[in-house]
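INFO  loader      accepted 1 record
INFO  loader      residues=376
INFO  predictor   begin
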Amino acid sequence: MNFELTEEQQLIGQSAREFGKEFLDPIAVDLDHSGKFPKEIIEQLASYDFLGLLVPESQGGAGAGFVAYIQVVEALSRSCPAVASILNNHAMATHAIATWGSDAQKAEHVAALAKGSRLGAVAVYENGPTPGIGPDALVASRQGDKYVLNGTKAFVRNAGVADVYVVFATLDSSEKKEQTAFLVDARAGGLTVGPLLDTMGLKGCPVAHLLFSNVSVPASALLGAENGGSAIARTLLAVSSVAEAAQTVAIGKAAVRHAAEYAQQRVQFGKPIAVLQAIQTLLAEVATDSQLAWLGVLRAAQLIENGEPFEADAAMVKAFLARFGSKMLIDCCQVEGGFGFSEFMPLPRLFRDIAGTTLLDAPADYPDKIIADSIA
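INFO  predictor   done
INFO  writer      dumping tokens
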């Protein structure tokens, strides 16, 4: 497999890095404190065509491909992972419609989502009858030429700011309890956004439950086939996990860069601590972990772009970074000592954000079955 990037991919990545330095570096700390949705930044993302990277040119997007897309996610995450999370959830909703939508659904939504005149979100997780995540929390019933949805979707990113939701529900007539996907307009009657959740990190990317009370959608809102939503959800989560792995790598790179700069400036016994073997070992391990993880992300991204089986590779990078992501931050904090533990340094914010990129969409051990099943 060739890991050399094309000239176009390199230019897109460079553009995203420059975007991060110009627009995200100045706001990252304030956004972590305020948690306010950065509407103006999302509009800037749209002006750079970053919202439509995965959308084919024939549907009004940039048609840049998944390798270019994860480069943008990684570059933005070095500066502000929360903004990259907003982008990723939007991109997954757009990708779902562009891939599984009908011609009418594509014509109505995809170009608008790619250009940023609309924002998308995916609502896949559920609140069950007991606290936590449970099955059948959102149920859809067929009533003539429409479906009526009742229940809850949990932990929805971009909740309250999205214009259209890709929603997964269980049909009350489904014996196998397979999911069915729908497109739901944010203005639909009976749809309520719950209070925003005060998340640990990724501040600025709004997260809330969606409450459905007799929400009526036309049959034309069905995405794919009845009972076909589970397969769509599995693919979307696998694709999304590669982008989230890119976010985690970026946070590790940001942390090691800051720790290395600090080690050059911090002087003990007349010398920068960067010359100490223990410090060099910590920095070298973080740099190695992030570089090897990035190669795994690139491989998974190329498989996706080439239309080849990628689920096992996506699960591997997800599992690796779920276990080593926080370790990268801990090692960097060891380099910076008590100062690294202080809120006026970036590491506490990066700690909070990396918890979101590794755990928000799924527990750390979820990929293990996928990996085990792929072993011949």
